[in-house]
Amino acid sequence: MTIPVNDAGITPAGEGIGGVVWNILGQTYKPVQHTEHSFAFDTLFPPGTFVPPHAHPDQDEFIRVLEGEFDIWLNGSEAKAKAGDLIRMPMGSQHGIFNRSALPVRALFWVAPSRQLYTLFTRLHNLADPAEVVRVAAEHNIHFLPPPA
Hints:
Layout: E1 22-24, E2 27-34, E3 39-45, E4 50-55, E5 60-67, E6 69-74, E7 77-82, E8 86-89, E9 94-98, E10 105-112, H1 117-124, H2 130-139, E11 143-144
Antiparallel strand pairs: 1-2, 2-3, 3-10, 4-9, 4-11, 5-8, 5-10, 6-7, 6-9
């Protein structure tokens, strides 16, 4: 599989590099920048969608909330992030991202370094079985946490 790495230029608003759009558990992800050093993607989280608590052992992750509001679980604490806020999740931090509102949330996510995240998203596209998502994610060094007791 060839993974596009963007050269100097502009990724048009609302588009992913090379027209790529992923559907991951009901959320829309569009890659807007990708090099070995970092990977950025636009997201749309419909109401009620979420990414369960997980960790990236070898990536820092950031989220700039563009529209709406996320509920964040970060290292055991809960917080809200609204439009304009930047969420910082250093490598190894445990975090979950939830849209518990009645409106969609748009955000720009990025990780550094990119590692295997682009390939993971390609494999998760249209995958509906949460257990399979967890298994495939672990193969790419993204580790979901067990559900609370």
